[in-house]
Amino acid sequence: MSETDLGVSSGTTNREHATTVLNAVQSSGQHYRNGLGMIASENIISPLVRDIVGSDLHGRYAEGLPGKRYYQGCDDFDTIEALGIELAQRVFNCSFANIQSISGTVSNIGALKALARPGDRITAVSTADGGHISHARMGAVGLRDLNLTTYPWNEERMEPDIDAACKVIREVQPKVALFGQSVFLFPTPLREMADAAHEVGATVMYDGAHVLGLIAGGQFQDPLREGADLMTGSSHKTFPGPQGGFLLSSSTDESMHKRLNNAMFPGVCSSYHLHHVAGKVMALTEFQEFGRDYAIDTVANAQAFAQALAGEGFDVLAESRGYTASHQVLTRHGETDSGAGAKAAQLLEEAGIITNMNMLPGDTKAMTPSGLRLGVQELTRVGFTTSDMEMVASLYARVLLKGEDPKSVKKDVHALKSQRQTIGYCFNDEGRSGYPV
User: For the chain, how many structural domains are there in total?
Assistant: First the structure.
């Protein structure tokens, strides 16, 4: 492949390439520092976590488990990982924790490797109804070559149709019954469906990637007490740590613990990014101190934001249920598959509001959906409160309903965000900014 194919000028020096990268990194930091980051799958890390992620650990290996390594030089990391396992068990109230996963998707791949063989049956939420891509044939389910059946969906309640889903589980008799979503407004009615799954010998797996911090903060649901045998999740969404994932279980079955550990290493990870694991451990420490307040404030902000958007005249989904019980808010901006969500996201970015288009029930085309999926967890992290949510909603309305020039609105976005620059819910004695420069 030539430099031209890569979009690189043949006359550009390597020093200039380095400058291009550094400038783009700085520009990205400023983009978020000055704007409103409202993508539901993102968050920012605390100053202490950021220091750890940039430490010498980034280039080191520690294959295996604490005290059982394939490399020398791991004693200090053994201390870190052993503490992290203990903290994760405490924070998530579980008997087993593996903190090595490098993402939520890798957590899912590892879990499915441990729980099912190629050709086994699995049930999950359809991506069209908000399921994550790793729950689909295009993702981890397909990678493991599992036979997928999706649950019937209750659009009004934005959850699986309980009776119909239980019927499907009993008919299909899956090896794994997978619950959880990427579009995740309300707790899953897990108890009833888990009972049906256990009747047919299925393992119940709950993907809590988006809501893991809300779960740990006691503000969503408690899957491991509601029938889930295993919970996976991301460490960088409502759980405000570095990029990474978790495998968690309340099972006391040692053979299952061994399968889960082996599925992570050597199953799906060799190097599991020690700097991110150590960052997770620091985030767990901070979460023990501040996590419950953060979860409470995040849900309160999401509910206030949804109500404010509805008051401005937006079509906010799930009105009959109070719009949301998580960090997410869903809005519809046009007809099914119209691309209205994509257009709305572009206009908002021009105004300094960073969101993502998203398929809503009825949409079939991921690149031309009708909706937006909005998250308040990052704004909450830097001090936005329920009283700020009306102002944020009014900025949306000015761009999308009143047709104001996004560049004009952007000035007010920057002015609002300039008042909210210091990260909270963490050990932050130096008062450093939450955003990289």
Answer: 2
Contact 373, 40 (CB under 8 A): yes
Encode burial over 152-185: b for 16+ CB neighbours within 10 A, e otherwise: ebbeeebbbbbeebbebbeebebbbbbbbbbbbb
What predicted TM-score, i.e. pTM, was given to this entire model?
Answer: 0.95
SS3 98: strand
Q: Same domain for 124 and 256?
A: yes
Q: What is the pLDDT along the chain (437 residues), one digit of tens a residue?
A: 455 555 566 678 989 999 999 999 999 999 999 999 999 999 999 999 999 999 999 999 999 999 999 999 999 999 999 999 999 999 999 999 999 999 999 999 999 999 999 999 999 999 989 999 999 988 999 989 999 999 999 999 999 999 999 999 999 999 999 999 999 999 999 999 999 999 999 999 999 999 999 999 999 999 999 999 999 999 999 999 999 999 999 999 999 999 999 999 999 999 899 999 999 999 999 999 999 999 999 999 999 999 999 999 999 999 999 999 999 999 999 999 999 999 999 999 999 999 999 999 889 999 999 999 999 999 999 999 999 999 999 999 999 999 999 999 999 999 999 999 999 999 976 656 777 65
**Residue 385 and residue 359 share a domain:** yes
- Domain membership flag for residue 277: yes
| Whether the Cβ atoms of residue 104 and residue 110 lie closer than 8 Å to each other | no
**Residue 368 lies in domain:** 290-417
CA dihedral 27, 30, 36, 41 (to 10 degrees): 60
Q: What would the two tokens of residue 105 be?
A: 């998707």
Torsion of CA 349, 382, 436, 426, to 10 degrees: -150
Task: Find out whether 236 and 203 touch, Cβ atoms under 8 Å.
Answer: no
List beta partners, residue 232: 207, 247
One domain for residues 279 and 310: no
Calpha distance 428→434 (Å, rounded): 10
Query: Cis ω on the peptide bond leading into residue 47 (within 30° of 0)?
Result: no
